[in-house]
């Protein structure tokens, strides 16, 4: 079973991701991970921290002589920016976990909430996802993302100006990103049980990205406004291509199973919660009205959220792939995959 967890605080020593269940004999180097980490730190509207941190992965287990050996892969991302770790604050920030987290964990210093609830943790998800991406590339499965809109505007030419204006006002912006998986075979996921559905796994993984407030697969919410005759993708057959569709409103998933078309997922990211012109709030210690705590922050991080989206989708796709074609070495998985493709082409 493929699984991963992350550990680490935003301004602590380091972030750590542990990925277990990756087959042996996959070529893996820190560079495979660093390129995705760099993309997570990029994008117009990012805050000053991105200039301080240049994430570099240290693979501390699971790899020998440049290849995975089947044991858990631990990846460490040392933090350069640690100076805020000991700075307490109590002016709760709306839109963050500060209020609910402080009460839930019985904390008097909201720093204890911020440090783990911060989206800095998504660097760990990106590291684990990069290994999954490398695994999937062995089977010609690719995952890419793009920004669809910022602040409700589709035209990319407007975005930098809008982000600059938001920054000047001490405000922030959200938007929509899309992730596409191409090259996935028919048959990942299943309808036989609710928790076997790949659509459910993908939606959960994307919804769990900090700041994401809505997820769509294929036509998504657009399907509510059109009749069935326009919503569903008709099926065709060609001797060379096999079964195929001319449209992809289903976003590559039918009955919770990949149907051979690109898997298309969109997500809405709310505007960044930390505002330089702070919102009204309450001080956790005194209960008196107070402006929210301000800490250096992004103004807009939709592009970076798309990179995190790629990572969590890479993990879910790799997990579904291994559930179906599982093996302990890359060779065993390849042989299972090839035999399935042979069986499917006979149909
Ligand atoms: C890549 C990325 C970067 C983010 N950067 C910031 C940031 O700099 N400041 C901020 O307030 N929120 C940022 N967020 C969003 C918050 O982490 C998120 O809104 C907060 O943790 C509350 O979680 P929720 O919005 O899911 O409820 C970022 C999210 C992502 C995915």
Automatic annotation (TrEMBL):
It catalyses: 5-O-(1-carboxyvinyl)-3-phosphoshikimate = chorismate + phosphate. Reduced FMN (FMNH(2)). Keywords: Amino-acid biosynthesis, Aromatic amino acid biosynthesis, FAD, Flavoprotein, FMN, Lyase, NADP. CDD domains: Chorismate_synthase (cd07304). Pathway: Metabolic intermediate biosynthesis; chorismate biosynthesis; chorismate from D-erythrose 4-phosphate and phosphoenolpyruvate: step 7/7. Pfam families: Chorismate_synt (PF01264). FMN binds at residues 116-118, 255, 270-274, 296. The keyword Lipid metabolism does not apply. One of its GO terms (cellular component) is cytosol. Its cofactor is FMNH2. It is an enzyme of class 4 (lyase). It comes from the Bacteria. Gene3D superfamilies: Chorismate synthase AroC (3.60.150.10). GO terms for biological process: amino acid biosynthetic process; aromatic amino acid family biosynthetic process; chorismate biosynthetic process. NADP(+) binds at residues 40, 46. Transmembrane segments: none annotated. Its EC number is 4.2.3.5. Homotetramer. HAMAP family: Chorismate_synth. Belongs to the chorismate synthase family. This reaction introduces a second double bond into the aromatic ring system. This is Chorismate synthase. It comes from candidate division WOR-1 bacterium RIFCSPHIGHO2_01_FULL_53_15. The gene is aroC.
